[in-house]
Batch of 2 targets.
Target 1
Amino acid sequence: MKREGSPWTGLWAVVLKELADHLSSVRMQLLELLIFLTAFAATFVASRQLRATVAEDPYIYLKLFTTAQEPLPSFVAFLGFFLPLAAIAMGFDSVNGEHNRRTLSRVLSQPIYRDALLLGKFLAGILTLGISLLALWLLVTGMGLFVLGVAPSGEEVGRGLLFLLGTLAYAGIWLALALMFSVIFRQPATSALAAMAVWLFFAVFWDIMVQVVAQALRPAYGGDPFAALAQLRLGLFLSRLSPNTLFAELVIALLNPEVRALGPVFITQLEGAVLNSPLPVGQSLLLAWPQFTGLLAGVLMLFAGSYVLFQRQEVRA
Amino acid sequence: MNGVIETQDLSKHYGPVIAVDGLTLTLLKGEVFGLLGPNGSGKTTTILMLLGLTEPTSGTVRVLGYDPSRNPLQVKRRAGYLPDSVGFYDDLTARENLRYTARLNGLTRAEADARITDVVARVGLTSVVNRQAGAFSRGMRQRLGLAEVLLKQPEIAILDEPTAGLDPEAAIEFLGMIKELKAQDITVLLSSHLLHQVQAVCDRVGLFHKGKMVLEGTFDSLADRILGGAYRIKVETSRPDGLEPALRAIPGVTNLSQEGPGQFKLETQVDCRAEVARRVVSSGADLLGLTLERPSLDEIYARYFREVDHET
Ligand SMILES: Nc1ncnc2c1ncn2[C@@H]1O[C@H](COP(=O)(O)OP(=O)(O)OP(=O)(O)O)[C@@H](O)[C@H]1O
Ligand SMILES: [Mg+2]
């Protein structure tokens, strides 16, 4: 049936309210404090190590993100770990929380569509994450200026911002997942646990499973190079179904200008390539493009799923 | 079409459960209509369909001429809804909660603030408007809900069990506020199972039973139809002997029962107190008391369902 009136009526009202909620909620502030402290520690340690090589390295600022110094992991490793948690923390009680507070029927009896409520909640979450990420990036860059004593080049800033966008898309996956579970499960505790379970599954078990499955489906015995390649390819394909792999590849491509390919490379493909010469930003972006769109597609799919489920849901508690 | 709310053969099925069954209802402008019925009889489901919050299985709805499924925004802009057991954002103040609603309705900040001051005063929450809604009592929440309904200056107010959970005094006060809506020409649809309260404010009631509206009309006509008389007259006399046939013979008396020595209860179609007094006195007895009682909806209700149960 055709509906009349814009589905986005009231969208900004929802976004502004949810944004204010996020920014003032103790939950978010604690998480952000945690992220800031760990990121600060990671980059501080990295920058002290990098100080020795400032003169030789044209991409010293990018190294700031990726250098790990025992016992601390690198900045991007920290982000990859905490960001899904932050996104889940923001989304897991979006819709069921409204149900349980008995505000849902009241809000939906205002002149807005359900679309606006759901999208508004998602956008507010993404904006909050974006603001935090930007602040984090500024913090790291500022610290770089302070410790390294050189300004980042335009290319480094560009790569840094692209990296932020990619990270936001990755966080969007977990936010959309949490949002969907908040539509499916009536209890916030259940939806939080379910989202964490998915996260844990991809973080820990997915790689193991991929290996097992690839070995079972494309066995490679006796050093047959084609069989080995087939196994490798299947493994790579499966592993790219995980947002974590996509994010990792995106980070590698954007933050390491020397990286020219993701996945197996044949020696023939390297003909004419100047090894170890860095790629321009545009080329790196092209390299990471499939990963980026893959993440976006995941976000869209999850959001569409929540949308369909939410449209059919009864409003009464 | 002169009905503010019109439904035709409206039905809602939840799988095998028939929540609303062939409801045809018309509400006129400025009328206060009460949806009455026991738990699970379909009152809330009807209300949700009127607001486009749930899709009817079959039948049509028109609210102010709009179809709530196709044109929910038009309907929701003009109709205020107070859900049963209404909730607010606990960590926002009452004012902030209302501001959010105002923004959802597209009001500007200045307009919203002016209206909020006004409606908060009307429901008597001015002194606590800057307190967090989480600290509000049931009664205060209910008032805040009514304030929210008033905020959009609705043409229709739909109130689901507005007095449930309120103490008797608060309930009476709340009903007073509902009467004020009528004075402003707002059409009111309220649901309840507290019959005497509905009786106090409603022009017309519809009695729901298992999803069907089994009775509908003004209070007097219902009393007529179900109880066979709209008036109750209680008579207290000193000497009851021989009085009963004399009273029974009064034109308009449909039923008579003796409640104690010298005490009679008459069900009548007209107010025939004068005739009763005359007959008591002329029979030589002393007239000790004579009171006219309007039958309560509780009686209608109880009587109706007793009859229904009897038949099945
Ligand atoms: N989501 C649902 N799924 C299945 N059945 C439902 C659903 N919602 C309501 N019902 C059923 O529809 C019927 C009518 O419910 P409704 O809430 O409209 O009654 P009500 O008159 O408002 O009752 P109450 O006085 O308890 O509020 C009930 O039998 C109820 O069990
Ligand atoms: Mg109900």
Note: The longest helix of chain A spans residues 114-148.
Target 2
Amino acid sequence: MTAVYEPWDETRGAEIIAEHSKQEGATLVILHALQEAFGYVPAAAIPMVAQALNLSRAEVHGVFTFYHDFRHRPAGRHVLKLCRAEACQAAGGDALAARAEAKLGVSLGHTTADDRVTLEPIYCLGLCATAPSAMLDGRLVGRLDEKRIDALVAEAQR
Amino acid sequence: MSIRLYVSRDAGALAVGADEVALALEQAAAKRGIAVEIVRTGSRGLYWLEPLVEVATPQGRIAFGPVTETDVPSLLDALASNTPHLLRLGATDEIPWLKRQTRLTFARCGVIDPRSLDDYRAHGGYKGLERALSLGSEAILNEVTASGLRGRGGAGFPTGIKWKTVAQAKADRKFIVCNADEGDSGTFADRMIMEGDPFLVIEGMTTAGLTVGATKGYIYIRSEYPHAVEAMNAAIQAAKRDGYLGANIGGSTHSFDLEVRVGAGAYVCGEETSLLESLEGRRGLVRAKPPLPAHRGLFGKPTVINNVLSFAAIPFILAEGAKAYADFGMGRSRGTMPIQLAGNIRRGGLFETAFGVTLGELVDDIGGGTFTGRPVRAVQVGGPLGAYFPRALFDTPFDYEAFAARDGLIGHGGIVVFDDRVDMRKQARFAMEFCAIESCGKCTPCRIGSTRGVETIEKIINGERVSENLALVEDLCNTMKFGSLCALGGFTPYPVLSALKHFREDFVPAPTTLQAAE
Ligand SMILES: Cc1cc2nc3c(=O)[nH]c(=O)nc-3n(C[C@H](O)[C@H](O)[C@H](O)COP(=O)(O)O)c2cc1C
Ligand code: SF4
Ligand code: FES
């Protein structure tokens, strides 16, 4: 299932920020909420967050860039995350990642030219006893093999 | 008569089709006019048998697995007519892999409905808190200390001492923080318990709160665990509704509230001070210690920060007494450890047992070797900062000190198995690469050293001035070991140096190959 995001809208952004800004240490909570709504954290939102939390723009930008999760632009229509950590490596994950890269024509960390699929590495999904593992738009898949990875890639390309 | 079935909704089971199986069971039952009730539990932790389907009988639960959608019709027919089925495993509790375990922390996981507070209480839940409320702070501290419980997050620091420090600190506010960042590859015990027995974590944290005088707690869960986030949030709501969170816990004068916060994909945020920075809404830069979080932690206030499994061990200790816990284990490692068997392993999953079991027993005997059927060559114990062990060290008992004596660590209890096709140069390079990706950037040896490490190991892989570069890597490791503020930079040398030491043949080309190349 593809996630459906709203287009960036300043009023809506301000609403989301206001909803969470009273919590202690709200920066990550707000960045998460923005990304959940818009699919990424628009650059225009950073100064708004800073103002709401009485922080400098640089501080909020610093937080935003520190964490791997936050995107500065929308991802492809589907996001396929492949676990690249040790347990999945031990179970044959390297070859499967290479296979997905070849099929999609992009390397991990990139989006296909048609904007359909973003392929990303992830470091452990906690499914290490049924490795190798992946996540397609929030859905977990374990015990990956060539057949399953091909099916996932095909599904992501649709 | 209705048939009661149990199917896990644990993320590990979902990843191999548990939802599809549950749905198929429902549909096939409706088609046959059989009344079924499907209870969605956590996982028993026998992952090679997931999706596991259990059926309630007067003699206890009977297990079937691994079940696929296509097995469902025949399974239902067998159940309805009481005839044998190929996937029948017998009584769940009698499955040897489960029977051999000592499940103190994971006693209820996979058994109860994690969304039902009634189910939790019916299986002994909140007995520990009840006793804690009657004991009072000082007596609780004595129990926790006497149990010998050491932090399960990796460092193995005595939990009783940590709690006592916070209890004695004077402040207007104190906090309880649960470290659910579980970033180590090969570990999933925190995830399982949050999904399968979330009230246990709440009970443990609530006990900590009333012991040290804290009224607010946070559970910091990594964003890679959306199912755990959902399960914990649901449990917190249920506990609030029934008066187990909020004002006057269990009719006492104590109040305690809990909130879930979600991480954002930074491994270093599992380090306790980085986690606190992140909770405060900042970059996850590691803080210098002292001050300890116990003195100045979250928002500058005295804070107990413990791993999920540390909190989850508390209710048993209080309900059954410190001695019942401390009777298990060896040396200074008391009680049980939920060990996680992962990677290329035939029988992977959660194995809770008393400290002292050897690495060889765990990998060969319990784990059954590799699922590829090839020989086990290396195992990494304790996550990405843990050492690689060769078969020659398989007699090492699972114990904090025994692993340290062999330049390793047990960490959070994860064991990742590799077969004989592993290239240890690649594993060493990955250790450095991971450190480079995840470094918080505060200290040079970690930030720059790890990148140099990747480059140097790359050269070794390419056969460039191998012995010179090997010496360079060793040198670099020493600099990282002694010049890093936290264990990310400080312990990355463990996997690298252990690979170099125990698997030297992968790094130094055999002389015969050199001659052949001439
Ligand atoms: C890089 C790094 C990552 C860590 N990740 C975790 C983690 O994911 N979970 C955890 O409980 N402890 C983790 N720790 C250990 C914590 O710093 C800390 O020791 C622990 O939360 C204390 O709780 P405990 O005493 O109950 O183990 C990590 C440490 C380092 C240096
Ligand atoms: S060792 Fe690395 S992760 Fe730890 S404080 Fe230093 S730079 Fe940050
Ligand atoms: S290492 Fe891939 S899921 Fe844990």
Note: Chain A has a mean pLDDT of 96.
